[in-house]
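Reopening this ticket.

The earlier resolution said the output was attached, but the attachment link was broken on my side. Pasting everything inline this time so it's all in one place.
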Amino acid sequence: MERVVSPAEARQAIAEARREAKTIGLVPTMGALHEGHLALVRASCRRAGYTAVSIFVNPTQFGEGEDFDAYPRDMARDLELLAAEGVDLVFTPGVEHMYPAGSSIAVDPGDLAERWEGAIRPAHFRGVATVVAKLFNITTPDLAFFGEKDYQQLKIVQRMAADLDMAVTVVGCPIVRDQDGVALSSRNAYLTGEEAAQAIALCEALEAAAEAVAWGERDAAAVEQTMAEEVSAFRLVELDYAVVVDPRTLEQVTRIEGPTRALIAVTLGDTRLIDNAALEPPPVRVEDEKDAQEE
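Inline output:
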C-alpha cells in the first residue's frame, strides 16, 4: 500500500495504474475509520482493479462552533486497517495541499442542499461538494463509493457528478449498523455510555415508519408523527427533524404512493446524529385491486 500526501503524487500513482488499464475506485473519508468505511473499501476492491482511499478532515464543511478541532483522528490505526483490506493508495493531504493560499473558488451544491442538513448547517454541503470535486479531479476515479447513511450528501454528489459531466459513477452503498441497529458513524465516539444506549432512538423511529407503511399507512404526515413519537420516548434525545421525502429531489411528500425515504436527525448530548431508511408500500395484489374496484 502506497501513501502520498500531495495531489501531484496522487496523480502520478493513479497514472501508473491507468497505464496498466486498471479501473480506479475512490473511497473519500475523513478518517476515524469504522466498519461502515471498510464496507465501502471492500465494495471498491471488488469492483475496481485499483482502490484509492482519501483521508482528509475537510475544514470547509464544518460551520462555526462545530467539531472540526475535536473530530476524531487516528491515522496510524486507519492505515493499518486499510493495509489489511488490500488498498492500493492512501491519499492523506494537509489543508495546505487541498486549499493552497489564495484559493477562492467553491462548488455551489444546488437546490438539493437547501433543506434538511443544509438548512441547519448552511455552509456544510458547499464544503462537501468542493472537496469532493477536488478529490475527483485529483484521482480521476471511474467509481466513487459513498455510504447511504449520509443520504443527502450522496444525492448531492451524484447530482454534482451528473451536472458537471464528471466521468465518474457515484455508487451508493447500504448503511452499516451495529448489533443494536444504530448506524455506524465516527461521531458515535463522542457519546457517553448512557447517550450511546439512547442512540437506538433513530433506528427505532425508522423501523416504526417502515412498519406503518407496510401496514398500509399512506399519509406521510402520520408516518412522520409516528417517528416523532418514537423519539419522544428517549429522554436524552432531541428531535431536529423526521420527514418523508422523495428519494430523488429530497422534497417532502404528502402521500406515500411509491418509493420514498425517511430522514431523521437528532441531537444527543452535544452530538448530532442522522439516519435514514427506504420506505416503499408493498405492491398491490391483483385480487386486492379487483376487490377495490368492485366496492
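Reporter confirms the inline version is readable. Strands lie at 2-4, 24-29, 50-55, 89-91, 143-147, 169-173, 237-245, 260-268, 271-279. The domain at 2-173 is CATH 3.40.50.620 (Rossmann fold).
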